[in-house]
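In this section we turn from sequence analysis to structure. A common task in structural bioinformatics is to predict how a protein folds when a small molecule is present, because the ligand can shape the pocket around it. The inputs are simple: the amino acid sequence and a SMILES string for the ligand, here copper (II) ion. Study the lines below before reading on.
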Amino acid sequence: MARAQHGPSARSFRWPAAGLALAAVLGSATVAGAAGVGQPVPWQMDLQQPVTEVAREIYNFHHLLNWIMGAVVLFVLGLLIAVIVKFNERAQPTPSRTTHNTMLEVAWTIVPVLILVAIAIPSFRVLRAQLSDPKADLMVKVIGHAWYWSYEYPQDVGGFKFDANLIEGEDQVKSGQPKLLATDNEMVVPVNKIVKIQVTAADVMHSWALPSFGFKIDAIPGRLNQFWFKADREGVYHGQCSELCGQRHAYMPITVRVVSDAAFQAWTAEAKTKFAATGDGARFASAR
Ligand SMILES: [Cu+2]
């Protein structure tokens, strides 16, 4: 067989094969890394599983971007390798003196613009969903302190407030809760209800962030920030302060428990007796 004569075609076949292999590795990484409901898991490569519509949109957008980026990187790498192989001094002793190619120049201007437009459309769709202001079923005020979070529930569910401190050391081991993520008191919210969060801080800047809800909002002294989420799956979800706020920044986690309506009623009834009453002190701003 005259195999040696097929050298160039065999070589040109190898690049797509290598590209496919890399794509397979990237693809399996996105699948294999999928895990972590409400908290990260060892060796996790993917984002935490989304439990709100907005988080799901962010999740899908993230993966779309990864595929677009992967395709661009592979394409540029392919061009670079083609240039190195085909246009080196040995392969082309007399270089071509071509300098312009109108079609090519139009294409490499238009194609990146189209790619950016393709990215911008879903990006703005997610932003619009995040910044929409639906009518709230429940308002909760969240206040960042150095170094813990406190929560205030309005009068219509009982009017109470409490602090949520990190469970540490022996207590954490005994509780079986994840390290550095669990708090002694949890923020409890009903499932499939629009929960509006008003966030501020008492001392320095903090940030209330909950990956599974696709949610991160700065807590700034003297300023009230607002955000909303609708968790569609019951469970316990952990987050952390995400603004470098000082010595114990890493020790002020966030725990949100999403429960059924009935369980939420039961919890507020108990919370009313267990926690301090806000009286008339708790005021919720209307951003409408
Ligand atoms: Cu903080």
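Residues 1-15, 24-34 have pLDDT under 50 and may be disordered. As an exercise, try to locate the residues that line the copper (II) ion site and compare them with your own expectations.
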